Amino acid sequence: MKLNLDLKDAHQGPYLAQDLVRASFEIRGPTFHKSPRISVKFIGTMVVSYPTQVNAASPGQVTTVLFEQSKKIENRNFKWDEDPSSGESIYTTPIEFQFPAEANCYCNRPKRCPLPPSMDINEHDMRTEHDDGSCPSYSPKFSPLIKVEVLLPQPAILIRGQPTPVQIIVHTPTDMIESGEVYLRSVSMDLKSSVTTSIGMIPRTVTQTKHGCTMAGAVKIDSELFEVDSGAWGNFFVLNTKPTTESCFLRMDHAMEIVTGISVGLGNDIKYAVATFNVIVMDPPPAYEVGHAIHA
Fold first, then answer.
1. Would you give the distance in Å from CA 7 to the centre of its chain?
2. Residue ranges of domains in the chain
3. Which of 46, 97, 121, 209 has its CA 20 to 30 A from that of 172?
């Protein structure tokens, strides 16, 4: 007897809460003389692995079951066919499950935690994070202060699949402008996503960066408040990024990072100013149907 489970409608991007999962279940073998007892389980887990170089004292992995569903398949639901080459009976039936809206959690909230989106994130090496200003690629702390101001036409919410206009204003000290010709050399906008798991003994955080927009050139700055004229380039898109989520076992946060390069003259001595702020990533709101007004 051979069993085969084939997923239908290949899903693009992460699975989210309340998404449907459809599959076709097939059995090949002799003809059933008695009704078989068949059950199917749909289980969602979160697995956190600790490589030796990250946790040498206790390498291994921790698995947490987020949800579990089961269904019984009745014999009448099967469609029968016969393989003409082998004479085997072929029984097929569709199977459908739906991701729950909530997951099993361990906090004391009156409502259970939301189910996070599906994800597969790996971090093979340990990374050391430096404080702002300690990296040689950025301005040392005694350099003239250059600030970057970022304005959004709405709250700090990014809608997946939709552009968000971003306005960038560079604040440059007057004495720096008067000392020579100041140029804007580069602007980059990236999205940093941090995933923190809270299962096991020690919480673990993995941060990934998705590059968004990059612009390079030499634009002269002639005022203390200089607005970057980015045009269509200033639309920030969020595509395959997973939405912001928070629960007692997993948290996903997002932040936009804007880095501007400033130079006095057109030499290679470029100073960098960084602006970072937290944002919420979410799916587009559902479409609304406009009904006809009813007059009494």
1. 23
2. 2-98, 147-282
3. 209
Residue 133 has pLDDT above 60, yes or no: no
pLDDT of res. 191: 92
Q: What is the pLDDT of residue 128?
A: 36
**pLDDT score of 136:** 45
Q: How far apart are CA 93 and CA 102, in angstroms?
A: 28
Contact between 197 and 48 under an 8 Å Cβ cutoff? The reply is yes
3-state secondary structure of 148: strand
Q: Which residues are CB-neighbours of 110 under 8 A, at least 6 positions away?
A: none
Burial 27-56 (b: 16+ CB within 10 A, else e): bbeeeeeeeeebeeebebebebebeeeeee
User: Which residue, 179, 208, 174, is CA-closest to 191?
Assistant: 208
Question: How many residues are listed for the chain in this entry?
Answer: 296
Higher pLDDT, 213 or 11: 213
Assigned CATH class of 147-282? mainly beta
User: Cα 15 to chain center, whole Å?
Assistant: 11
Contacts of residue 153, defined as CB under 8 A and 6 or more positions apart, other chains included, come to 164, 165, 167
